[in-house]
Every structure is written in C-alpha cells, then in structure tokens.
What we know:
Number of helices: 17
Structural class: alpha/beta
CATH architecture: Alpha-Beta Barrel
CATH topology: TIM Barrel
Helix content: 40-55%
Strand order of the largest sheet: 1-2-3-4-5-7-10-11
Bound molecules: 1-deoxynojirimycin
Number of domains: 1
Shape: globular
Strand content: 5-15%
Number of strands: 13
CATH class: Alpha Beta
Radius of gyration: 22 Å
Amino acid sequence: MSEEANMWAQAEQTVFSQLTGSDLLVENLKLPADFIWGAATSAYQVEGGATQDGKGRSIWDTYTHLEPSRTNGENADVTCDHYNRFEEDVKLMKSLGMDTYRLSIAWARVIPLGGRHDPINEAGITFYIRLIDTLLAHGITPSVTLYHWDVPQALYDRYKAFLNTDEFRADFERYARLCFTRFGDRVKSWVTFNEPYIISIFGHLNGSLAPGHCLQAETDTKTEPWRVGHTIILSHASVVRIYAEEFQPSQNGRISIVLNGHFYEPHDATKQADIDAAQIRLEFYVGWFGDPIFLGRDYPASMKEYLGHRLPRFTPDDLELLKATCSVNAFYGMNHYSTKFARQLTTPAAEDDWTRNIEESSVNSKGEEIGPASSMPWLRIAPSGFRKLLNWAWDRYQLPIMVTENGCPCPGEADLEVAINDQFRQRYLGLYLDSISKAIYEDGIKVQGYYAWSLMDNFEWSSGYGPRYGIVHVDFETLKRTPKGSAYYLQQTFQERRKDQA
Ligand code: NOJ
C-alpha cells in the first residue's frame, strides 16, 4: 500500500471507530422481491462528445470554458466518454446485476439550438436510440430524465432560458414531445426535471452552477430564483399533461419529477424556534415544488408569507393545470444524500435571503456532529434522517417513492487503492438501504427502487473531477473503468436482501 493510501486507510479507521459502537452498523435488512436497483448518471457529467455529431452547446459548455476557475479548471468535453463507450458501460451494468439505469438526454444533442422551430439533429437521436436499445437488449430498464441542468446555450442567449416562462415552456414542450415521439415506444419511465431547487438557487442565486447568476452580476437575486422555480413547475405540469393526453394511452409509461433535499433536525431540540425551523426549511426546499406539483395547489403558506411579492403568483389557469395534472405523477423521485441541523437566526437576513433566515450546519447546539463526513464536508452518514425524510415525503404526498440518487465520495479516494476498497461508501450504502427497509416494513411506506449515484466517477460540476461518487472507478487519463468494492457490494446485497421476500 502506498504511503498516501496507508494514511487514508488510517483516517478511515478513525471514521469507522466513530461509526462502530453507535447505531451505525449495517443490518442487511430485507427488501421486497420486486424492488429494483441500478445506478444514475447525467448527460453532461458522463457523455463527453461535446461537439461530436452536431451536438450544440449548453450553458455548461459555456460556464466551464468561460471562467474555468469556477469548475476547478476542468470541463466535461470528454469526461467519461460515455458517448463513445456506452456499449462497454452497459455490459458493465449487466455484469453487476443492475435492473435499471437512470440517464439524461442532452437537449442540445437532439435539438442543437433548443427552440421549437430549430432543426433536429438526427445523429443525436440515433445515439439515444442505440443506448436505449443496448440497455433493453441487456435486460436493463432505462429511466430517462429530460433535463439535468444543460439548457441549450442558444435559448439562454435568446431569452435567458428559465427567466422567460412562456418561451421556455413552449420550447421545453416541443423538446419533450420529440423525446416521447422518438423514444417513448422504448422508454416507460420519464422524469421531467432533475433537482429544481438546485437549478433555481445554485444557478440563479449563489452562482456556483451554470448559468452562474449571483449578486455581483447584473441580476436580481431577490426574485430570479423564484421565477426560475415557477417556470420549472409550470413547464413540468404542461409536459405531464402532454404525456398523459398524447402519449400515455399508447405508450403506457410513467412520468414524474426528481426533487432533492436534505432532512433537517433542530439545531437546539429544546427550542421551539429551531423545531419550527427544521420543518420550514423542508417546506422551502421540497414543498416549494412538491406542493404545487404533487398536491395541485399554491406554494406553502410559510413561503408566501416570508417572500411576499418576491414569489410569483399562479393564475387561476395555472392552478387548474396543476390540479388536473398532479395525480398523473406516478412517483416521488427523491435524490437524497444527507441530513443537517436547522437553526433559526434572529439577526437581520440578507435582502435576497432564500431560507427564511435559517442557518444549516452539520453540528448542533451541543457540539454533536450529525454523522461521519465523506470527502464532502456537508455529506455525512445520517441514515435515520433519510428514513425521516421518506416518512415526511410519504405523509405529505402519499406517492410511491423512487430513490433516484443516493451515494457519497469516500475520504481519500483520490488514491486508487482506497477507491477500490471503498469501505466508507459500502457502509454508507448499506446503512441507507437499511433505512429504506425500515421505511417499507416498519413505517408502511411504498419505496419502489433505488439508484446509486453514480454509475461511475464523473464531472462533479463546480468541483470538477475532485469528488468521486462512482461505484465504478474511472481513470481520467486512460478512461479505464474499474468496479469498486461498493459495486460488488450492491450486487450482492440486493441479491441477499431480496431473496425469498413475498
Ligand atoms: C445531485 C445531482 O443530480 C448530480 O448531478 C450530482 O452529481 C450529485 N447530486 C452529487 O452532487
């Protein structure tokens, strides 16, 4: 073992000694026989082929090239080169026993300029047909996300993308119709948008993701994130209606959206303000989208009260559309990684505050940490928070849950030996699967499936190639794929956990 690997192995041991002796021991609890599992990726993060076969540019091509320091000096022009290596990747998924694969379509690959009157790129369509057919030929069910953060740059140049609701919505409807028409005979599971919270806040307030709006630029961070969210909600509802009316009767697929969210515990469990803060933080994070989309109603009262005129209003027609489409959503797509503490601040909030002046942290008022840290300081092992979030989403929305992303990068994973023997991740995954089992069998919640994030190490947005979330290691010099211990762990644990379950 190299010196560095040795150092990290010791660091991991320290983390594990924190883990053992606590309730953080994997119990290998059962899962239903028809529970499905697989892995997830997104187009920009794994495909590469940035300009290959007529692909247009997306806001991420611009964001990474314009000021490379924003993405650790790196971009995803090549990344895992999945565009040219997908056959090898599908074989790998098959060899690991996956039932399903969650991928996203790069809008600019199929409509390079993105708009409703712009030409279609047949080569891009062919790529996705080949990928989907290869999956099906290997017995792997595709789940396809239409939008995982990569709006065509031309639409941003024309009308600032999400900031023009009517234009965006019309262009997204055409793009979705194209996908349903060309892929819908083969794809039976659709997701419209991935993580609307992140698109709105990180892309249009913090500026840490494309298109990078933030207070310094000539933007209005007081209102823009909420306008972006509004556009996403209405575009989702329109596309759900299109699918239900024009495609579902013959294609028989399912459609929904993927919402991410941490769970929140009160920073000081003896203070009512912090207890309320934990609930309100969930409403601002998840209820923002979940209430209009899944319940067919207005934004949560807590948001309307705090944000006032900063929050756009739904018209009576909008509300009718939301009401008409909410029950078409067939599942709650949940991306979940970790839990945080929420603390109600009393000091004045910033003008563009988006949290109702609630601070998040990994340590509570007693100085206790929420859980052992992965290589991302915010991402800690906290499986009981996961179970609580499953309960929260189920109680509020009463929809079967698909866990569309879950995973972590390990401490020390830059070293190949540590990556391959990724004990930390195996422990994390095992504990989170136990939480799903408890949610199903003890709490009576319908959880139908699980996707590890990610199939393979890839371009982690503003962190570039630093954090490695894959269950398969990728050497970014040679592009060689090597399954990590966690890939084999998942293969085996799903076999065992699902054995003989009614
Ligand atoms: C959420 C996003 O959907 C995905 O693109 C990202 O890489 C992971 N979480 C990890 O941060």
